[in-house]
Amino acid sequence: MASGRYILDVKKSSCKRHHSEYLSPLDLSLQPGSRKLSKEEKAKLRRLEQERKQREAEEARLIQEAEEARRKEREAQEAARRAAEAKVQERLREEQLAATQVVLQTRHEQMELTFGQMKDEDEWDRMMRCDGLPDASSVPEMNRYLSLWRQDSSTASLQGCLDHTPQLVHVISELDEVMDTAQSGAQQLKDWREIWLSLQETQRSKLDQATYRCLLDLRGHLDHETQVYSFFDSSPLVALALWSNTARSPKNNVHEVEKLGLTFTLPADLVTSECVVRVMRTEYDHYSQFARTFYAPQVEIDYSISQSPPPHVGVLVAVAGHEQQTVVHVSCTLARWIYGCKVKAGDDDEAKAEDLSKYGRKSGGPPDIRKQKPPHLTETQPGELNLRRYRVQGGVYTMDLLQVPPQPRVVGNCTITQVEDCNSVRRVQWRAKFNPPPPAEAAGQRRRDPEAIEQEMRQLEKELQKLLLITIKLPDSAFWFEPPQMVLWDEERGYWSSDFFHDVKYNEDQCVLQVRTTRLGVLGLAMNRFANLPFQNWELRPNGLNSAVLSLTAAVVLAEIVITEGQVSLQLLQDGARSVLTHLYGKFMKPKQLIKTLRFYGINLFPEEDSYCYIDGLPIKHRPTELHLYNCMSLVGPTMQLAWSRWNLLAGPNKLVFQMKKMLSESNQGSQELVLVTPQRTVVLECTEVSQSFSAEPRQGLKVSYLQYYADLYQLVSNEFKQDVIESMQQASSAFVHTINHMLNSSSVISYC
């Protein structure tokens, strides 16, 4: 025990001794047992303590200044290194973009020659058809065709009009293509549009004349027992049904046009009216193009680049500058909305948006600008159908009331017929006097009486009986991925309107739509144009020399399109587990024709420049970079398999991510790589499609120094892959490369997947 106490005392003594070494003289003088110091000694000790602290502070300051100087020196060296690297990269970037531009320019010149040959072949084929149809690009020939058609009395009969309709639709379609593609002056475009309007007005006039002739004598289609007149005739493009309750019996208020899948129930005031109900369905829609929302709003965008390409080559690069300084010229509105950057208006309402990339590096992303109105957005009035969001499909229904012309009278052996100066139908105007009960008061204000609710329901039901009830089985000529809405063409306002329909019901199992309407006229079924967008998956893979397959997995359908030299064809189209539109498989046509055909059937896989305004949650990619990437993809597409990446959606507007794999043949394939394209450079990434998280770090082992800098995808593939890949790219024809570019631009797979 004694030894233990001895050891403990030693330790305590040692602790006291070491502790005293860290005390100042003034602190030592204040310890118990020390001699009491005088005032002079205390002042001296305080002065010595202050001097000690000053020395320590000065030493710390000198150390800090030395460290700061070394840090600044390191930063200056790093900045100098980055500046030198950026300068070299900028030079390489300009050189590589110029080299890519030369390749694209050469392809374009070759394609121009091919286009000329194709145009000559089309003209020769048209002349050899000897079908009497005019050249749609020739205004005199079109005027002559229109004049002869108007004077042709045989087309005023119903059968003659039905037989002539396919020819007319073909001529109008060719004229549409001419107006879309031909480079012409304002006067010629005006002449074409006047002819285009005249053709459609004349077709409507011919159908009215044919209907009038059918009504001149009702006896041939009159049920003598019920005194109900019923007539129906059709062709592949036009179907006409006529019905009249000549006895004006209240029992005859319902009629079903079975072949059109349409049933209507007349209200009481029309049952006793002397008129004919006409239901005419046309597979074509000659009304939507007159609406102001049919065309996308024009937004002027001018992207300026250091190596400006000719206008026909298109935009090659996104920006002029390196990663630390990016300069893009866009319209003020678009720059503010997409990038949220500071812009200064120029002479032509152009803007200079600087340091776009800083929003991703410094502030964590662009400002919240989605609440602002997109520049391409089309605004509509209440009740107006926005044709940028919806499309009238399945044809249009003309449902109106017509006056019964004077009927023949039999007097003895003679038949007396009154001849009218008018040889066309006369319409009966009808507007239902619909007065629905006022809307219920806001919930929570007061508790409603059940008797009042029941009375209100009875009043509403009574008012609904004043409306004309229409039940339509959706046409099989189109695909309906969502419930459509009924619209009526408002001639006075010039747009499709949904204001006149009430008590709308839809049976999804039977695809039957039921509505009540206060007006009659030209009716249509409007469908959301973007039911299949955005894409779930996409892939572009080589399929032999000058052939590739573009696979698009949309929200509902799966499409595979074969791409060849100047033409494309549908290889597969699946709606769920069933194959559809099989009659189009293997039928090659121009890309625009295939796009138009699929849209006619209600399958829209090709967004337009304003489509992003109507698809929720769709990130906007940097458009110039995307356009140039499609140019590069078309050049490397003959040898590389390109596919979607799950990282692309959330990577940001300036980061375009996709997968790439060399695919010269089934036996000569490479590994799957993840590629990142930005406005500044193109790299192969270290992370893969199955990585835990996304990283923009370049792949280890890849030559990533600035001496191996790649400005775009074409330069990366040309320098990183072997000679067999380069030779395969060079063997592809310019027409094939152009067609790939067309399909990629039309589908916009980078932004819409």
| Major sheet summary line | 9 strands, antiparallel
CATH topology of the domain at 217-291 and 383-437 and 455-528: Chondroitinase Ac, Chain A, domain 3
Oligomerization state: single chain
Q: Which range best describes the helical content: under 10%, 10-25%, 25-40%, 40-55%, 55-70% or over 70%?
A: 25-40%
CATH class of the domain at 217-291 and 383-437 and 455-528: Mainly Beta
* Rg (CA only): 39 Å
For the record, the CATH architecture of the domain at 217-291 and 383-437 and 455-528 stands as Sandwich
- Number of β-strand runs: 26
Total of helices: 15
* Residue-averaged pLDDT: 83
Sum up the overall morphology in one term: extended
What topology, given as strand order, has the largest sheet? 22-21-20-19-18-23-24-25-26
Q: Ends: how far apart?
A: 83 Å
Sequence stretches where pLDDT stays below 50 over 5 or more residues: 1-22, 303-370, 703-707
Beta-strand percent range:
15-25%
Structural write-up:
Among the domains are: 139-212; 217-291 and 383-437 and 455-528, Chondroitinase Ac, Chain A, domain 3 (Sandwich), CATH 2.60.220. It is built from 15 helices and 26 strands. A hairpin with a 2-residue loop joins strand 21 and strand 22 (578-579). The longest helix is centred in the N-terminal third of the chain and has 91 residues, at 39-129. The chain is extended and about 150 Å long. Residues 1-22, 303-370 and 703-707 have low confidence and may be disordered.
